[in-house]
Amino acid sequence: MIRCESLVKRYGRVTALNGLSLELEAGLIGLLGPNGAGKSTLISILLGQTPATSGRAEVLGLDVRRRRRRVRQRAGFMPENDCLIGGSSGTGYVYYTARLAGLSHGDAMQRTHEVLDYVGLDEARYRPAEQYSTGMKQRLKLAQAIVHDPDVLFLDEPTNGMDPQGRQAMLGLISDLGRAGISVLLSSHLLPDVERVCERVVILGGGEMLASGSIAEMRQPHPTLYTLDHSGDGQHLARELQQRRVAVHNQSNGVLAIELPGAGQERLVFEAARQVGATVRGLHPKRSSLEEMFMTAIRKQEQNRR
């Protein structure tokens, strides 16, 4: 779906992308990185809005420098900042973007009403867009991004400023689009959003790729941290575990968060449980969260620069 080869982008003395190379297959992909990592610059180059200083990029097999008009016809973009037209209603705004994408008057009007219904703005479609709440404006931006039925979506902070209920609704819409076969590149600083929606993730830092892969595969089990589900006296079991050099970090409702003294020491848990007459109902290794993966990648980059 997306391919970059040695992509460089400089703004004067500032290097936003530093020889970035990556290849992303179709699907739901999260784009992560701290401020200044190059996420917005990458999206801008992929959409043909900003030329790269050097290197090459393709979207859907199309060279973004030579065939940027065709790329824009097949891609949808939801920017982070407001991109509304003053004095325009929700219907007028989405219809205008549909016409810009090349739809005829009839098709543009039909698709406008369909996507406004889809994002939940059916009752507000004729209201001036500047009167919309933040959440409604976000949904309107999503509507204009999908009005021309694109093959790939670039979403830049799609849940920014939304309340919890609106945020969950937006993530549900994005998931639905993915299930419908539209590929999505989701740039967000909200890691739980990416973890909920995306299948794979790319982490950028300093204009370079720090990590990339399937979220499920990258969330490797920790060798010594476990969740222990048990029956019996939790305090008695915790004391017995501690005597065997197993650290107990938390206990609640028959569940202990424990840390073994080393990898491969699970037998200590069963020995302690047998000693106090408790039953081990489950012993599950703790897996790295997306936040831990993100912070690990950033720390490695900082260490490499020293």
CATH topology name of the largest domain, in short, is Rossmann fold
The CATH class label of the largest domain is: Alpha Beta
Give the helix proportion (percent range): 25-40%
CATH architecture classification of the largest domain: 3-Layer(aba) Sandwich
How far is the N terminus from the C terminus?
35 Å
The total strand number stands at 14
SSE order, as H and E? EEEHEEHEHHHEHEHEEHEHEEHEH
CATH homologous superfamily label of the largest domain: P-loop containing nucleotide triphosphate hydrolases
Q: What portion of residues belong to β-strands?
A: 25-35%
Describe the structure.
With 306 residues, this protein is α/β, with parallel strands linked by helices. The protein folds into 2 domains: 2-218, P-loop containing nucleotide triphosphate hydrolases (Rossmann fold); 221-287, Alpha-Beta Plaits (2-Layer Sandwich). It has helices at residues 39-46, 68-74, 90-100, 105-118, 134-146, 164-179, 191-197, 215-218, 234-243, 267-276, 290-305, and strands at 2-11, 14-24, 28-32, 54-59, 62-63, 75-78, 152-156, 183-187, 200-205, 208-214, 221-231, 247-252, 255-259, 279-287. A hairpin with a 2-residue loop joins β9 (200-205) and β10 (208-214). It is globular, with a radius of gyration of 24 Å.
Q: Which features would summarize this protein structure in a list?
A:
six-stranded mixed sheet; Alpha-Beta Plaits; 11 helices; 306 residues; single chain; 38% helix; Rossmann fold; alpha/beta; 2 domains
Q: Strands, helices and their partners?
A:
Elements: E1 2-11, E2 14-24, E3 28-32, H1 39-46, E4 54-59, E5 62-63, H2 68-74, E6 75-78, H3 90-100, H4 105-118, H5 134-146, E7 152-156, H6 164-179, E8 183-187, H7 191-197, E9 200-205, E10 208-214, H8 215-218, E11 221-231, H9 234-243, E12 247-252, E13 255-259, H10 267-276, E14 279-287, H11 290-305
Parallel strand pairs: 3-8, 3-9, 6-7, 7-8
Antiparallel strand pairs: 1-2, 1-4, 4-5, 9-10, 11-13, 11-14, 12-13
Helix pairs in contact: 3-4, 3-5, 4-5, 9-10
